[in-house]
Amino acid sequence: MIPVLLGVVAITFALAHANINLLISEYEGRIHTPQARAAVLATLHLNGPFIVQYLYYIGALFTGQWGFTAPLDPYGGGRSVLSVFEMRFPPTAELALVATFITIALSIPIGVLSAVRKDRPVDHATRLLALFFVSIPTFWFAYLVLLAVSPVSSLVPHFLRLNYPTGQINYAQYAFVGNTGQLQPWVLTGQYSGLTRPTGFLLVDTLLYGDIPAFLDGLKHLFYPAVVVGLTSFGYFVRFMRSSMLETLGQDYIRTAKSKGIPANYVIKKHARRNSFGPTTTIMGLFFAGLLGGVVVVEVIYGWPGMGTWLYEAAIYDDLTSIVVTTFIFAIVIVVANLIVDVLYAYLDPRVRLE
Amino acid sequence: MQEISTDKFNKEEVVLKVSKLKTQFFVYDGIVKAIEDVSLTLHRGEVLGIVGETGCGKSVTAYSITKLIPDPPGRIVSGQIFLGNLNILRNIDKEAKILTDRKRVKIKRNTRLIKRNELFFNQIRGKYISMIFQEPMAALNPVYTIEDQIIETLVLHKRSYILEVAQGAAKSIDKLIKFRQTMEEDQDINPEKVADLREYKPDIEKDFQGPLKEELFKLADSNKGTVSFLKHLDLLIEEGKIYNKKPQKYDRILNLDRQMDNLRVELLKETDEMKVNSMEKKLANYSKKINLIKLSKQLKRNKKDPIILEARRESFGLLETVNIADAYGILKRYPHELSGGMLQRVVISIALANEPEILIADEPTTALDVTVQAQILEIMRQLQKNRGTSIILITHDLGVIAEMCDRVAVMYAGNIVEVGNVNEVFHNPKHPYTIGLLSSIPRIDNPDKKLKSIPGTVPNLINPPNGCRFNPRCPMAFEKCRIDVPVHIEVSPNHVVACHLFNGTEVSDY
Amino acid sequence: MTSETKNIKSGGALSRSLRSRLESFKRTLYFLTRNPLAVFGLSVTIFYVLVAIFGPFFVPGNPNYMVQILQYKGKYIYNTPLPPSARFPFGTTFGGYDLFNGIVKGARTDVFMAAIIVFIGAIIGIILGSIAGYKGGIIDDVIMRTTDIFLSIPFLVLAIAMLAILGRTLEIMIFAFIIVWWPTYTRIIRGQVLTIRELKYVEASKAAGASSLRIILRHVIPNSVYPLFVQASLDFGNVILGFATLNWLGFGYSTQNLAEWGSIMSLATIQGTSAVFKYSWTLLVPGIVILIFVLSLNFLGDGLRDVLDPRLRR
After folding, report:
1. B336: contact with A, CB 8 A cutoff
2. A283 near C CB under 8 A
3. Residues A252-282, buried b or exposed e (16+ Cβ, 10 A)?
4. Are C53 and C251 in contact (CB under 8 A)?
5. What class, spelled out in words, does domain C44-312 have in CATH?
6. Cβ A119–B121 below 8 Å, yes or no?
7. Are B292 and A119 a contacting pair at CB < 8 A?
8. Of chain A residues 273-332, which have a CB less than 8 A from chain B?
């Protein structure tokens, strides 16, 4: 894991230092002379050999000294990137987790069913459905769902214009809270029903405060984006689950179990299922990367105030620090997810445990 | 289906009678007529070998007997299998309608009936007929311990017995503790008694009764040493203690189990549809309560439950009967930690856990080394002698047949071509195929320089040859062979051949 | 493949191996035609590819940019898209662009881009994968770790980052795609190579004195490309989706009138939900076009996978 981590950091490092002008853009206004520029470069340690720069980079990255947002940032340049991160990470995490949950909750039973009833109508329907979800452009699907839902109900925030630099609602700072139907600033929600957002996760916070209407409201808002992401990932996952299950069902020990007189549904529940999870966990990492990509797109479309929209805006406003930080965080999350999945695999399959 | 006594059994009694079994596989290229009109008779305590080339249908026959043929694409089309007096292939023709229009074959399945028959067969598999397979390394589920997989089958079919032993242990717990003490003391004081554990039998007779007594007798008879006996006693004492903590609960479960057992026995005899329906519903309801998955979890957490403990003790005993050293340690291991020979022994012990009447062994030694092979066959032979289990041994190795079997059936291309006593068939083979088979073995006493082989290859079973399926390769084939299917004729006592070269009366019992 | 073992040195090997390859190709096609979805996929894919190659010749205007029509029948249609009609088979979209025109040209853009990307990715994958699999050891480790690293970053994120920092040009886009896609192919090839190099005829070649390069070229690669074909046909669709997404987000090299499917869709969504609701074809038509294409590619890829599955081979 460590080499992968270093490698990922290296990539972000390369990205960050590929365009020096962009990097020092926050000092734009104050650089008028070559000496000033040299001074800035020196403070940021940008003039040494690459290794030195790399080490400084790692240091800064892992101690949270992430710098400040670019001057063109619509929410105010010069905000501490760390604080923006604290604000933006929980919504994305919520969305990603709920979407993953939806994907897994759908894929496992349907995949198993599809494998057990191979070549019957259920199987064919599942395969077609999966192919459909895999082939559909995520943003198109998300937008269509939005169109289908938004004029009708207030289930989705109404700010759905893409954030082009012509002055739109600063929805990153706001969220629907409670059932007032009104926008409330994220950070200022302390005034509303006593929420001070300890964890930043809307769903968790509302539960902590026992504010059930707000919880349900948050759930409603979360529903459509999560479903869109969940369904697209479902397309990938269910096919894999099915083939893994099929392979398990062909194994000898299934035959042994049947010859013992174990009823068919127990054979599947006890023997087949657990063995088919193993190979599935190995692709979880890749699959999670795809899911996060989908999360970015869906966030932008639904105006979900998370890391995806942050990245998107940062890319528009040439906010290099934000871009680098976002990329880094996404990569770290995937690396951690891979680690968790490896541990899970060892738990499931005793043959792997020796390592 | 009576309980057999372990010592004497009636060798004439017919345990299994297969009658005109026909199994086919419906694949894209056509219908594979895998076995056609296969009939067999198996007597109590007998070892029947089935021998033939790869693809001749031996495994298909075995799987058909336990109805393990994968349903698409295969189907048992017709036939009867009598377990005792009961035809367990009831309703087989009503299960599916096979419609052939032009080149496409469509199968319309009566799923409800199939499910019901499956439920029925689940009572038979593992309890009356068991199977062991070829690759021991792959036969067990790698994510569960050995213990888990042995206990699984015990809990499924032998639960009431297990509970009765536990109940006995609970009721006689003080005597048990005293017995254990005595044995431990005897190790120093009275070593001759300990040397042969059967000396304890009168003591056991005095103090204990019922299933507990039987179990203790079994332990004494098996004579595996004091350490093992003491371990068994420890387990019995422990389960007795836990049983006594909640006696009403376990008593209630025991009663339910007894009822279910009776229900099962009746189910196997019942032919009235309505009654069968309701019985199966009751059984299905109850099997939801013995949650096999919960059992695995309980095993993992080492939960103390008399059923689990007794089942564990039984599995410990089972592993001892197949001569596994350190049986108790093996229980907690995973299949990938054991060698092929040991795994096959575990598999045999699982198959024989519920004392089935019939054991079907499909090439059990083909994947093992020759030395291990000898051990396994020896174990099988011992177990067979001790319990009177009938064995169907499937193999392509004629040496194994000669060593183990009482009777042998030779199969070719889905038909049984010759059946009889092993000596008779090997010394007086009648069917040209058998003759060819036997002469293709290299022999020490007659060193021919060239190995004889049967020319030609096994026929395509989608379009088998007309008449006798062997006729294209048969050196003695004549006109009739290409037209008529030969019937089974008894050429000498207990020696039946299906070949036009011979004349006689047709028999159906072979 | 047993003919190969005898023909290490002789020149007749080439024609013999070609013939056996032709045989297996014919068999593959035969099995493929049994699968109705795959047939559908294949035919639709061929259709799209033909449109991509030849379409822009039959459609007015620069093949890379859409044709802009400011007035139609006296009305300014810049902000009021026209529904599908005889003149405009797919209608027009915001900005006065002929959708049919744009989509046909967009086919060429997308298909060519995807082809380049998949092709280059596959080449890199074959080279690196064979080296990693065949040589093993440290080289293998290094290459594998590198693939791990690149697989840990979501494609979209990396692409957006690269385009924002390094510039929004076509070259950077292609570069971003290839950077993200080469690991998959490398892994596939490596896996295949690992299996194949244990096969007996490779050992025989080595014993006969063939050099590693020769073995790789002649034995290993031809036999490991099958899963690559499957993956490539599935990836083709994914690349197109990714390409369209990037252009739709506005990070591509696109200008407003670029003929590219994703870019065309962005013209619609920029206007907001109510506008799109009113002029739904501006979003629906390009989307359906993409959907059908990627679906067909996936049908084809799935069909290929079923056919090339070694377990199904007799």
Report:
1. yes
2. no
3. bbbbbbbbbbbbeebbbbbbbbbbbbbbbbe
4. no
5. mainly alpha
6. no
7. no
8. 274-275
Task: Dig out the tokens for A187 from the structure.
Answer: 């950070």
Asked whether A140 and C292 are in contact (CB, 8 A), the reply is: no
3-state secondary structure chain C: CHHHHHCCCCCHHHHHHHHHHHHHHHHHHHHHHCCHHHHHHHHHHHHHHHHHHHHHHHCCCCCCECCECCEECCEECCCCCCCCCCCCCCCEECCCEEHHHHHHHHHHHHHHHHHHHHHHHHHHHHHHHHHHHHHCHHHHHHHHHHHHHHHCCCHHHHHHHHHHHHCCCHHHHHHHHHHHHHHHHHHHHHHHHHHHCCCHHHHHHHHHCCCHHHHHHHHHHHHHHHHHHHHHHHHHHHHHHHHHHHHHHCCCCCCCCECCHHHHHHHHHCCCHHHHHHCCHHHHHHHHHHHHHHHHHHHHHHHHHHHHCHHHCC
Rounded alpha-carbon distances, angstroms, from residue B141 to A173, A252, B362: 54, 8, 19
Angle, CA B98 vertex, CA B92 and CA B99 arms, to 5°: 160
Q: Does residue C311 belong to the interface with chain A, where contact is any CB pair within 8 Å?
A: no
Q: pTM of the full predicted structure? A: 0.81
Q: Pick from A150, A162, A290: which is nearest to C269 by CB?
A: A162
Closest Cα partner for B312 from B324, B325, B329?
A: B329
Q: pLDDT truncated to tens, each residue of chain B (510 aa)?
A: 334 444 466 777 888 889 889 999 888 778 888 998 899 999 888 999 999 888 888 889 999 999 898 887 888 888 889 887 788 887 787 888 887 776 677 778 888 888 888 888 888 888 889 999 988 888 899 888 898 899 889 888 888 888 888 888 888 888 888 888 888 887 777 777 667 777 777 777 777 878 888 888 888 777 777 788 888 888 888 888 888 888 888 888 888 888 888 887 777 776 666 777 777 777 777 766 667 777 777 777 777 888 888 888 888 888 888 888 888 888 888 898 888 888 999 999 999 888 898 999 999 888 888 888 888 888 888 888 888 889 999 988 888 898 889 999 999 988 899 999 999 988 888 888 888 888 887 777 766 667 777 888 888 888 888 888 888 888 888 888 888 888 888 888 888 898 888 888 887 777
Distance, CA of C196 to chain centre: 26
Reference B45, options B76, B90, B15, B79; nearest CA is B15
Chains that touch A (3 or more CB pairs under 8 A): B, C
